[in-house]
Amino acid sequence: MVKKEVSEREEKIEEKESKKKVSLKKNKELYFIFGVLIGLIVLFLATSAIFNSLNSFEYEGLTFTKEKFGEIPVYHHYYYIQKITGGVVNVVSDEIIKYNLFLRYDPRKNDVPIEGSEIEFGSYEDIIYVSVDGFGLEQCEQSSIAVSSLSSFLTNNLLSVKGATPRQIFAEVNEIPYVTCETHPDNVVIQVQEGDETKVFSDGNCHIIEAANCEVLQAVEKFEVKAVVDAKRRG
Fold it and tell me: Could you give phi then psi for residue 44, rounded to 5 degrees?
């Protein structure tokens, strides 16, 4: 009887020890799995950081990242602006807006020359005229993209924008504003037109974006980047 009880106790002890061993083995397996998962996460984050660093670069104090919009490579820079309150000049709210600037052309390789003064748009309530001379640009594939990009750039930066044309007859026939730097010297006028060479010229409120060989999008993007760089320098 005594031997039987001793035997049963020994069996129970062995069973407990066996369960402990199984439990320890499972714990070791779980720790191993967790360790592998953590290692993979760290590797993924490190790889992502390296990949992003390879696709990021500085240009004129702005950080750009090369990304893809579908199959189209783009160059992305973002910054924050304050939203104005009720259109009142110099009164800003606490609401912060993130603006994403996407370029089709690498700003480091965009060699469109810029001449003249820095680019400044004045106060938020002032009207900015984008005066487009379509003559010579209508056959260019990227003309509409360029004008749309410029308009979006201005309006998304909370500026008041109106479309116009520098051709008086065209303006009268189509009932749209006739605007040039000479007719509206007190307003910011951005005139987009064909030229003998692709370049950007700024003189106070007057900005001329000229495109040769259909390089209108390159010229517009150069103008946009220069505007951001100048604004950042002013603080």
Answer: -65, -45
DSSP state letters, 77-92: EEEEEEEESTT-TT-E
Lowest mean pLDDT among 36-45, 51-60, 98-107, 120-129: 36-45
Q: Is 30 helix (H, G, I), strand (E, B) or coil?
A: helix
Task: Output the CA–CA distances (angstroms, integers) from residue 86 to 91, 154, 158, in the order listed.
Answer: 9, 18, 12
| Strand (E) or helix (H) holding 28 | helix 2-54
Q: Residue 204 in 3-state DSSP?
A: coil
CA dihedral 212, 215, 217, 218 (to 10 degrees): -110
Q: Determine the Cα–Cα distance for residues 65 and 57; give it in Å rounded to an integer.
A: 7
Are the C-beta atoms of 130 and 150 separated by less than 8 Å?
yes
For the chain, where are the E strands, in sequence order? Answer: 56-59, 62-69, 72-84, 92-103, 114-116, 127-132, 160-164, 188-194, 199-203, 206-211
What whole-number distance in Å separates Cα of residue 109 and Cα of residue 132?
A: 26
Q: What is the mean pLDDT of the segment spanning 186-215?
A: 97
Closest of 216, 203, 214 to residue 150, by C-alpha:
216
pTM for this model (two decimals): 0.75
Per-residue tokens: 46: 């490190």
* Buried b / exposed e along 18-51 (16+ C-beta atoms within 10 A): eeeeeeeeeeeeeeeeeeeeeeeeeeeeeeeeee
Task: Return the number of other C-beta atoms located less than 10 Å from residue 190's C-beta.
Answer: 28
Weakest mean pLDDT among 5-9, 57-61, 80-84, 135-139? 5-9
Are 124 and 84 in contact by the 8 Å Cβ rule? The answer is yes
